[in-house]
Amino acid sequence: MADFYQNGIITTLHNLTHRHLADLEQDLTQFSKRRPMGLLLPSLYSELQGEALPKIIRELKSVPYLSEIVIGLDRADETQYRHALQFFSELPQNHRVLWNDGPRLRAIDEELQALNLAPKEAGKGRNVWYCMGYILASGKAESVALHDCDITTYTSEMLARLIYPVANPTFNYEFCKGFYARVAGGKLNGRVNRLLVTPLIRALKSVLGHSDYLDYMDSYRYPLAGEFSFRRDVLSDIRIPSDWGLEIGVLSEMHRNFANNRLCQVDIADIYDHKHQELSLDDQQAGLSKMSIDISKALFRKLATKGTVFNAESFRTLKATYYRIALDFVETYRNDAIMNGLQFDIHQEEASVEMFAKNIMDAGQMFLENPMETPFIPSWNRVQSALPDIFERLYEAVEADHRDFQAQDAQHG
Known about the structure:
About 50% of the residues lie in helices and about 10% in strands. It has helices spanning about 20-35, 50-60, 80-90, 105-115, 125-140, 155-165, 190-210, 210-220, 245-255, 285-305, 310-340, 345-370, 380-385, 390-410, and strands spanning about 10-15, 35-45, 65-75, 95-100, 145, 175-180, 185, 185-190, 230, 265-270. The strands form 2 sheets. It has an 8-stranded mixed β-sheet, with helices on both faces. The longest helix has 28 residues, at about 310-340. It comes from Methylophaga lonarensis MPL. This is Glycosyltransferase. GO terms for molecular function: transferase activity.
């Protein structure tokens, strides 16, 4: 059972009583009459064939309070898109699949690219951005949750707890971040969060001094969680990164756009597991190595916008400070694991810290060499200003794909 301690400067909503799911869903069904709810699922086609997504769909089939489910489908040809339509047809809720690689959405993307208004690279950030655009275009949901499609321990209670804070009309939260203990398979997981993000934020606080932004980031128990919820109006003005800095970027945008009392985090699961990335010690363009570089640059960029001046010496000092703090964390997590009967590989943990320390320096060097790098995707407000009919066109493109291919499949069925 979680504690009730409020750490940091944003509200933490705990799981103190393990309230029955039926009670939560009864509340949410009532809330949905005043505040319709949606779910956003960014998915690779390959995840349709994994173990996690079929289970997620089985869980979602019984959820009574959702008005809309939007699935962003990446890396799918026409045959795979047709299969995805069939796969998701089990859902009783109103739902749509965005065929991001289809000719209609590609045409819209090419037009936005020509205006420098589209994501520069493929990936989760791009997928999420287009799904957010569709949510704005459809207007069917007022409160929206987002989670990944590779959660192997998924239950519908996760969704209920995640969306509750922004769905309850008596709460004033605009944004909610999910958190959980990354314990599965008898060991501690979540190395990037445990051994990079938290020690790096603490090191930045030590080197740079007091910072409202760093205090804010340090308040989140799991800043890299891919699960969050928000009110629809959040989406119009948010600028999200297209790389692995997505989660850090979203939290940074919430800090820029809203007062702390409009933000919260919620305990959504006792056990959580998903697909694991390789450490990739020898390849900075893959796995946790690329993730650590993108995350570090996201933090450096944000701090620079708030007036922090970085140079080579400050990054050397930061690396040394980070390294000492992170090694202390390894000892802390070792003791925690032993007391809880969990496996703990000190060699792997310290190898991760060594790689992250090197990548912090490399990320700093990249930042200094290319200070104009802007992986942020433009806000939908800006896109609509340039193309006033973009939402109507995006909505119609998705509807046309759905209508045409569903009709063809019905004829051939």
